[in-house]
Amino acid sequence: MVEVVSLGDGASVSPTHRLDVIGFFCPIPVAEAKKALSNMDTGQILEVWADDPETVHDMPLLTSRGKNNILSIEESAGELRFLIEVIE
């Protein structure tokens, strides 16, 4: 499991795609991330912004079932930033 770190202390890669699901709660953040990842190519990186605390548990579950890897999870003032790389 990836440790949640302070904003700015996560992976230092540039995302190729962004998804803002601030204000949405389960299952919307994971469903939208899954949809976005399915349209991305190997090596591309999705940045997801969410404020649903359940995403800390749900995003790793999503990536464990697919061909994606969480590079980092960062948090600041209740907002979470996930960097997810498509690996296949």
Give an overview of the whole structure:
The protein is an alpha/beta fold. The chain has one domain: TusA-like domain (Translation Initiation Factor IF3). Helix content is 25%, strand content 34%. The protein is built from two helices and five strands. Strands 1-4-5-3-2 form a five-stranded mixed β-sheet, covered by helices on one side. Strand 4 and strand 5 (79-86) form a beta hairpin. Helix 1 (28-38) runs parallel beside helix 2 (55-65). The longest helix is centred in the middle third of the chain and has 11 residues, at 28-38. The mean pLDDT is 92.
The CATH topology name reads Translation Initiation Factor IF3
Helicity, as a percent range: 25-40%
Question: For the largest beta sheet, what order do the strands appear in spatially?
Answer: 1-4-5-3-2
pLDDT < 50 runs, ≥5 residues:
none
Overall tally of structural domains: 1
Number of helices: 2
- Please give the alpha-carbon distance between the first and last residues: 20 Å
Task: Indicate the structural class.
Answer: alpha/beta
Q: What is the fourth-level CATH superfamily?
A: TusA-like domain
What CATH architecture do you see?
A: 2-Layer Sandwich
Q: Could you tell me the number of beta strands?
A: 5
Q: Based on Cα principal axes, name the global outline.
A: globular
Give the overall average pLDDT.
92
Please give the largest β-sheet: 5 strands, mixed
Report Rg: 11 Å
Question: What is the CATH C level class, in words?
Answer: Alpha Beta
> How large is the share of residues in beta strands?
25-35%
